[in-house]
Design brief:
The chain has 270 residues and is mainly alpha-helical. It has 13 helices and no strands. It folds into 3 domains: 15-97, no CATH class; 100-201; 224-270, no CATH class. Helix 8 (136-151) runs parallel beside helix 10.
């Protein structure tokens, strides 16, 4: 799957990707102007003065993030510090760091870092390459399978994402794709989606799965109750369509699903 050495583009150095932005000084000036303007304007109806100050500081920080004026972590700490200096109680400003979600996030980030540093993520990436075809479609199918399997044991989108992202990044580096290329963006975005979307297909695949499942199972019968007397007609229509278009069954010889799945998974027609 890896390209030849002559066609591999040299990855962009980490300092270029994560360093300060080219327009950091104009961005800093814009952030200050917008923040001061929001503070100076009359307080909108229904918004408390403290809420206006928090909004101004938040917009100020977002502009700093956009223009990469400084490290994003430092900008976040600056935002919280400014909120406390503006009069917001420290408990409210740092509330997100005192709940259980913070410790869960810290644990999964450590787990993902460990996968990357120990080489486990890279070994899994090479194993995926050996099973699925050497195409973008094959990679997407591989991560869909991984996300689907993890749903049964990890009912948290955050944890699944933290496990799969290091694998995807190792895969990108093993292929030789530049960090900001379209191919690497496709793989990374697909991995995030595959860590979240399969969980919605299983009742307990996400933390909100039981709630959503209860709503669906309780609402659908009531919605389709007026059509209950026509159910035999629907069954007959489905049977006729199967006989006409899929006489061998859904997974039988010549079925559409089988023709599509075999090339994607095994790299050949069946």
């Amino acid at each position: 799957m890896a390209g030849t050495p002559s066609t591999v583009t040299t990855p962009v150095p980490a300092s270029t990707v994560h360093g300060p932005g080219k327009y950091r000084w104009p961005g800093l000036a814009l952030a200050i102007v917008v923040g001061v303007a929001l503070l100076a304007m009359p307080t909108p109806h229904g918004l408390a003065p403290m809420g206006q100050r928090v909004l101004a500081i938040t917009i100020f920080t977002v502009i700093i993030w956009i223009f990469q004026v400084m490290n994003q972590g430092a900008a976040s700490v600056l935002m919280l510090t400014l909120m406390v200096a503006a009069g917001l109680k420290m408990g409210a400003a740092f509330n997100a760091f005192s709940g259980p979600s913070w410790w869960v996030l810290l644990a999964v980030l450590y787990y993902g870092f460990a996968m990357e540093k120990t080489g486990l993520a890279k070994r899994l990436a090479y194993y995926i390459l050996s099973i699925f075809p050497a195409t973008y479609t094959g990679i997407m199918c591989a991560f869909f399978v991984i996300g689907f399997v993890l749903c049964f044991g990890i009912p948290s989108n955050t944890v699944r994402t933290a496990i799969m992202i290091p694998m995807a990044w190792s895969l990108v580096k093993s292929i030789g794709l530049p960090p900001r290329s379209r191919g690497s963006a496709l793989i990374m975005l697909t991995t995030v989606e595959m860590a979240v979307v399969p969980g919605g297909t299983i009742l307990f695949g996400s933390l909100l799965g039981p709630v959503v499942g209860a709503l669906i199972l309780g609402a659908l019968p009531e919605v389709f109750r007026p059509l209950a007397e026509f159910r035999i007609l629907f069954y007959a229509l489905i049977l006729l369509l199967m006989i006409r278009f899929q006489p061998g069954g859904i997974f039988g010889e010549g079925s559409v699903i089988r023709k599509r799945l075999y090339p994607l998974i095994f790299g050949g027609a069946k």
